[in-house]
Design goal:
- It comes from Paenibacillus pabuli.
- Keywords: Coiled coil, Membrane, Transmembrane, Transmembrane helix.
- InterPro entries: Diguanylate_Cyclase, GGDEF_dom, HisKA_7TM, Nucleotide_cyclase, PAS-like_dom_sf, PAS_4, Rev_trsase/Diguanyl_cyclase.
- The chain is α+β, with helices and mostly antiparallel strands.
- It contains 16 helices and 16 strands.
- The strands form 4 sheets. It has a 6-stranded antiparallel sheet with strand order 4-3-8-7-6-5, sandwiched between helices. The protein has a 6-stranded mixed sheet with strand order 9-11-12-10-15-16, with helices on both faces.
- Helix 1 runs antiparallel to helix 2 and helix 2 packs antiparallel against helix 3.
- The radius of gyration is 54 Å and the shape is elongated.
- The N and C termini lie far apart (139 Å).
- The model has no long low-confidence stretch (mean pLDDT 79).
Amino acid sequence: MNPLVWYDLFLFVLLFGVGVYVFATVRITNLHKVYFLFHGLMMLWPFCQFASTLTDDSGLQLFYVLLSFVAVSLLGSGWLLLTIFITGYSERLSAKGTFLLFVPAVIGAIGVVANPWNEFVIPLEGGYIERAYGPWFWVVMVILVSYFLASLVVLFRAVYSSQTSAMIKKQVRITLWGIFVLAVFATIDAILNVVLARWLPIIPGMTSLGIFLSDLFFVYVIKRYNVFDLVSIAHEDVINTIPYGILVLDENEVIVEANKASRSFMDLHVGDSFDMEVFLESVHVVGSCREFVNHYKKKENTLSHIELIVERDNNIRHYILQSSPIVDSALVPIGHILTFQDVSQERFYVKEMNRQNVTLQERNQALDLIRQELSEANRKLEELALTDSLTNCYNRRYLTQHLNHEVITNIQYKTPFSLLLLDIDYFKAINDRYGHVIGDEVLVHTAEAVKQSIRSTDILTRYGGEEFMIYLPHTEHDLANQIAERVRLAVESNRIMVDHEITQVSITISIGILSFEDFEVEHVPDNPEGYLTQLFAAVDKALYQAKQNGRNRIEFAAFERGVV
């Protein structure tokens, strides 16, 4: 037996040892499953190459040779799948895509196993230790080269993509070296042991050595960058997304972890020493620096914090530095966790709030003035709420509110007063003939005529519909009658133009009067609202009497004296 064949067994043992090492030192994920599939295919090649030399049975020799080339056929697809996982493109790979990825490798493997008409391998000297290769061998080689080229495309795309992280780019570059080494040794094996087999002796182990060396590159990537360590990846992602600066120090105050946020205000990296006192001297400290440093050095299992002002690139930032010791299971301090919380925005808000306090104080006087103006506006709004929008007279609500107080005062001080209730005669006929628009004009002109006929101290209100009530303060029976007659005549003589000034409308009114001038039997009522309702009812009865007696006339009400 040629001693060189033991190289394949030796390399198989090494590959087996590497596989055990990786399996024992990393957590199992989908990435690991892909790697171990890939690793198992790599191990089959040197094992089968060695096993084929241990037997004189040509059938077993053929079995081992075919099995080794089946492994090689599938190795290309395994390599491409592994590179897809390493570059982070696995999320884009669908189930259909995964199936199609293995189709060429499976076709090549089927051709190897079938070996139709010895189109793949031909025995020499009665066995397969010495063998020649047919056309299907080159088909398998083309498939392998295609897989390697596809792997190169994936790797180079990851290297030159702006979306690929720096860590993945480093992993990809090392993986490219692994592909290069395997390609070189596989090419040398094909040239020496296939192309030049007629003229040169067989040199075993070349492809096995290439497989082993390329696997070492993969293992280096796995262990150096923890590409398969799911917990490490998650830890790094989480710590780098935290907006606080984080430094993890060991017991010798050497930085063992620093997230991205910490690099925005300090030029320290993993492996650098961190001197707390020197650092605090380089920044402005708000509070007791000595107390914080003493607490930090004691490594007591409690939190301590201090505020810092850091100036960097003409930018001033405020931070809350919080220190917490790291202890082991025996509560022995083994390091520190330092967090730097950026509170610049909060401090800005405090300053802005103080500045605005002055402005607010200055505006208080303006607010007082505005409050007075609002009070005046509210008074005017209330006045509007008590006014009839059509005639601009006071409305019934205002009259009721005013008389509730006025009537009681008049009774207390025995001051005479009168109420006039007037109604437009046949107003419904006007609405029916001319429409409500002309009816509204009649109401407006009637109110204007009445206003011109009464005194400035008299209060005219629109009592409801076409009815108006006039409150006459300090007015006895005779004077009330004179004012009522003046009002009746003013309305009767008032001509209202309608139908584009072609037709004139003349109206009359009926008036009921209620006068109070004899207070000998009157006393202050206990229920002013009820008393006022009786007054309205009395004057309304007088108006009804005027209507019954022919309209366009005045009638006086007879109010029944009594306690209300």
